[in-house]
Design a protein that fits this description.
By secondary structure, the protein is an alpha+beta fold. The protein has six helices and nine strands, in the order βαβββαβαββββααα. The strands form two sheets. Strands 2-3-4-9-8-5 form a six-stranded antiparallel barrel. A two-stranded antiparallel sheet has the order 6-7. Strand 8 and strand 9 form a beta hairpin. The chain starts with a strand and ends with a helix. The structure holds flavin mononucleotide. The site of flavin mononucleotide has 14 residues, from strand 3, strand 4, helix 2 and helix 3.
Length: about 220
């Protein structure tokens, strides 16, 4: 059984592995007006150990609930079914009834995901409309609970960088095979697509550094006779 401990927000949050400027994928749980729970996958970006930002579509129930309740729980899990079912609530996939996913949070009036590796109970301190579609929400972290010192954090930058590295290894293997030249071009386009997203979700990070180096290596390989 994993030990449950209350991490000190001020000192410990950055030690959980969060990197600055990187967007991490979470499940944001909020209370509906009738007090039933709502959950949706949302990207979060830490500003520092106390504050974080979300960018949320105005059409979402999550934003409406945040405006009413001014609080939420940011839950981190690696359970992909929870991501899928909270994004597409009408799916008929069996098991895991959403109603049983939650317990009441301790410090804010919001539901908390039972199975989360790490939860941040937050209060909303600011809403800033970005355009006609999205609003930037700034939250203060009121309380942190983690199941371990090394909770699993999901970042698209990490998986897309790994995907690009895999494409890179294929390009290297195919370099001297004339029949594979079209495939090489397609792989390079895929690496380009991965890089576009990584630059958006993790600018100036170890991920962009790796992808830029990979691009340089591929250029060098292709210049060799
Ligand atoms: C991994 C992942 C990350 C997402 N991030 C965001 C986000 O940052 N902002 C947003 O508005 N929607 C995001 N979405 C889409 C919402 O989760 C989705 O539209 C959801 O149905 C909204 O639910 P709600 O209406 O209950 O809030 C994301 C979806 C996934 C799968």
């Amino acid at each position: 059984m994993t030990a449950r401990f209350q991490a000190d927000v001020k000192e410990k949050l950055s030690e959980f592995g969060f990197k600055k400027a990187v967007i991490y994928e979470s499940i944001v749980s909020t209370s509906n007006p009738d007090k039933t729970p709502n959950a949706a996958p949302m990207g979060i970006k830490l500003i520092d150990d106390k504050y974080l930002n979300l960018t949320i579509f105005n059409s979402s129930t999550t934003l409406q609930n945040l405006k009413t309740q001014k609080c939420a729980v940011i839950n981190f899990t690696d359970d992909i079914e929870i991501f899928y079912k909270s994004a597409f609530k009408k799916t008929k996939l069996p098991n895991k009834n959403m109603a049983h996913w939650f317990v009441q949070a301790e410090f804010v009036e919001a539901p908390k995901l039972r199975v989360a590796n790490l939860t941040l109970e937050v209060s909303v301190i600011d809403f800033k409309p970005l355009d006609t579609e999205k609003t930037k929400v700034t939250c203060k972290i009121e309380h942190t609970t983690s199941q371990s010192m090394h909770p699993q954090l999901y970042s698209r930058a990490a998986t897309l960088t790994l995907e690009a590295v895999i494409h890179g290894t294929r390009i290297e293997t195919y370099l001297n095979k004339p029949q594979k030249q079209t495939e090489i071009i397609q792989l390079m386009e895929k690496i380009h697509d991965c890089t576009d997203v990584v630059e958006r979700v993790a600018p100036n990070s170890i991920y962009t550094t790796i992808l830029s180096d990979l691009q340089k290596q591929i250029t060098l390989w292709r210049q060799k006779p």
